[in-house]
Amino acid sequence: MDSEKHKIDLSKVFRTNGYLLPADESEVEAFEANLVISDDLPVEWENPVNILTRGKRQATKLTNPETDQDAVNNLAMAARDGNTISEAVRKQMNNDRKNSGNK
Amino acid sequence: MNEPTIEDLLLTMSDKEINEVSANEAFVTLYHRYAKFLNSAVIGHLKSKSVYNKDFVDDIVANVFLEVYDNPLSFSFDEKKHKNEETAFKAWICTIARNEFSDMIKSFSRHSKMYVLTSDDEMPDSIIELDFEEQLISNNRKLIDKALEGLTDKERHILLSCYDFYEEGKNTPSTVLDSLCDYWGTTKPNVRQIKKRALDKIKLYLNTSATIKK
Questions:
Q1: How many CB atoms lie under 10 A from the CB of residue B29?
Q2: B102 touching A, CB under 8 A?
Q3: Which residues does chain A have within 8 Å of residue B9's beta carbon, measured at their own beta carbons?
Q4: Does residue A70 carry a pLDDT above 90?
Q5: CA of B2 to nearest chain A CA: how many angstroms apart?
Q6: Helices in chain B by DSSP H: which ranges?
Q7: Higher model confidence: residue A27 or residue A80?
Q8: pLDDT tops 50 at residue B193
Q9: Rounded CA gap, B190 and A87, in Å?
């Protein structure tokens, strides 16, 4: 029947097709059928004992370059040879911004 | 000689205070058997969300195996419950990896003190109604790829992140929403809107392609 609706668990579909990590054995089986084994080896592949000596890692924070204002500020500061913006320059920048908004 | 089973290796690791050398050797064996699987799974997972970062993958994989070494007896193979030892173990390390993601998100969030489940942080329902049976998409990566290609990076990341922490009957943890707000420089109401829009696009694409096939 054309209008018949079927209930589908989308989170399971994502897990079995490899978009999300599988949660149980049946999902692992389906997941492995779609899994592409990466050529990139884990960094500790040659000496896994390093994992034990190094201990728990604080993960690298995932940042979006488009919204990472800290990174933008750091780059701007690097461009000024590490100097902060002087009060006079900041005042001038604010005035310029205000004036451009009035146009 | 037969290769040691996963349980043999875990048992050897559990004796690390008595024989550290053997425990470490067992760890290396287990790592070399399953690290490629986990590494590839985590890479695929992050790439599908368009947030792949090699350092992040290495951190997750290392922390998962460290957790296995520290608590080797948390896993046990039960013939009545499990189909086979290897898939059961893989499912277990994937669960540890998901918990690692969750812990890391909590630590990243500027609002981590607000780790509460609030009623307005609702997840899109995982169960959706479509015009065709689940078998058509349950093992059809090409179709799902196409459906996800129709989303923007932001929509795909937000939708998959929400489903990543989906638990039936529970809302999206606030920390997940907070981290998405931080990552995309947006607000919770916007995240909810984007989530809904992404889900609508997926449903529309899947129903349309099913109609074409009929």
A1: 17
A2: no
A3: none
A4: no
A5: 23
A6: 6-14, 20-48, 54-70, 85-108, 135-138, 141-149, 153-164, 174-184, 188-213
A7: A27
A8: yes
A9: 36
Q: Is B40 exposed, middle or buried (0-12, 13-18, 19+ CB in 10 A)?
A: buried
Residue-wise pLDDT tens digits, B44-88: 888 888 888 888 899 999 999 999 999 999 998 888 888 999 999
Residues 65-84 of A with CB under 8 A from B: 66-67, 69
| Chain B residues touching residue A36 (CB < 8 angstroms) | 40, 44
Question: For an interface test with B, which of A52, A68, A69 has the most B Cβ atoms less than 10 Å from its Cβ?
Answer: A52
In percent, the amount of chain B with pLDDT more than 70 equals 81
A57 touches chain B (CB under 8 A): yes
Determine contact: B52 vs chain A, CB below 8 A.
no
What are the structure tokens assigned to B4, written together? 């040691």
Number of CB atoms found within 10 A of residue A37's CB: 13
Q: Considering only CB atoms, which chain A residues are within 8 Å of B210?
A: none
**Interface check B71 vs A, CB under 8 A:** no
Tell me the pTM. 0.77
Q: Contacts from B25-32 at CB under 8 Å and sequence distance 24+?
A: B27/A48, B27/A49, B27/A52, B27/B65, B27/B68, B27/B69, B28/A48, B28/A49, B29/B4, B30/B6, B30/B65, B30/B68, B31/A44, B31/A48, B31/A51, B31/B65, B32/A45, B32/A48
Rounded Cα gap, residues B125 and A12, in angstroms: 12
Which pLDDT score, from 0 to 100, does residue B198 have? 92
Q: A71 contacts in B (CB within 8 Å)?
A: none
> Tell me, what's the ipTM?
0.80
